[in-house]
Design brief:
10 strands; Chemotaxis Receptor Methyltransferase Cher, domain 1; Rossmann fold; three-stranded antiparallel β-sheet; alpha/beta; 40% helix
């Protein structure tokens, strides 16, 4: 199947994934595309990548467009990734937070580890004041995994032992080696499908928005559009947090860095 894809066909999928998810698929990702989509061509009886693209464009299989997004976007993550952000939430933001309901948005939550990490921090350090975690992703498949809240032990290694005991259940027998987020914590996190490059519906204002390791997949105009959309959903004293390899320099002048990767209104 590798010989079957042409530069023209690859360009079609570059355009498609940009339209569906805002992802800028670099030419170096051609082998990744082949590896992740070849099985779909075989399953659907498509003789070429162009035939598969035409099927996607025909509207006869709308669920297949969701599947392409699932296959071509990256979902690898783990609990308390980039721990300095959770420390800033705990040590700097929460002590200054007013008593009103405190809302955090995990805006590209993938399989849920980031959202549940945030929820653990809030459960431990805002136990006597109201809080809410809203989590979203463009992929329906990863959202289903997130709602279930079941993970390999490898992904949970960074959870503090005491928090692991209080907020998670260890699997036994056929589930040995797995960990599931406890029902009480899962009930405090709501999940929804949100495409960040499209207008965001009515979801309210947030004290903190985590948008980590997402902007690197967008081109500059898309980054600007996403940041403008999210900035409108930040409370005046709110914070936007991006990944360690990301920056808003040259993207917006509405937000200024409080420290590297952590922004608030200028």
């Amino acid at each position: 199947m590798e010989e079957a894809i042409t530069d023209r066909e690859f360009a079609l999928f570059q355009r498609l994934i940009r339209e569906l998810a805002g992802v800028d698929l670099a030419p170096s990702k051609k082998q990744l595309l082949i590896g992740r989509l070849a099985a779909r061509l075989q399953h659907l009886g498509c003789a070429s990548f162009e035939a598969y693209f035409r099927l996607l464009e025909s509207g006869r299989h709308p669920e297949e467009r969701d599947r392409v997004v699932d296959l071509l976007t990256t979902h690898e993550t783990y609990f308390f990734r980039e721990p300095q952000h959770f420390e800033f939430l705990r040590d700097t933001i929460l002590p200054q937070a007013p008593p009103r309901p405190f809302r955090v948005w995990s805006a590209a939550c993938s399989t849920g580890e980031e959202a549940y990490s945030i929820a653990m921090v809030l459960a431990e350090h805002r136990a006597h004041a109201p809080w809410e975690v809203f989590a979203s992703d463009v992929s329906r498949a990863v959202l289903e995994q997130a709602r279930h809240g079941c993970y390999s032990g490898e992904r949970t290694r960074a959870i503090p032992p005491g928090w692991l005991r209080r907020h998670c259940l260890k699997g036994v027998r056929t589930q040995a080696g797995k960990v599931r987020v406890g029902e009480e914590l899962r009930a405090r996190v709501s999940f929804a499908q949100v495409n960040l490059i499209a207008p965001v519906g009515v979801i309210g204002k947030f004290d903190v928005i985590f948008l980590r390791n997402v902007l690197i997949y967008f081109d500059t105009p898309t980054r600007r559009r996403v940041i403008e959309n999210l900035a409108m959903l930040l409370r005046p004293d709110g914070h936007l947090i991006v990944g360690h390899s990301e920056s808003l320099t040259g993207i917006t002048d509405r937000l200024r860095a409080r420290q590297p990767t952590i922004y608030r209104f200028a």
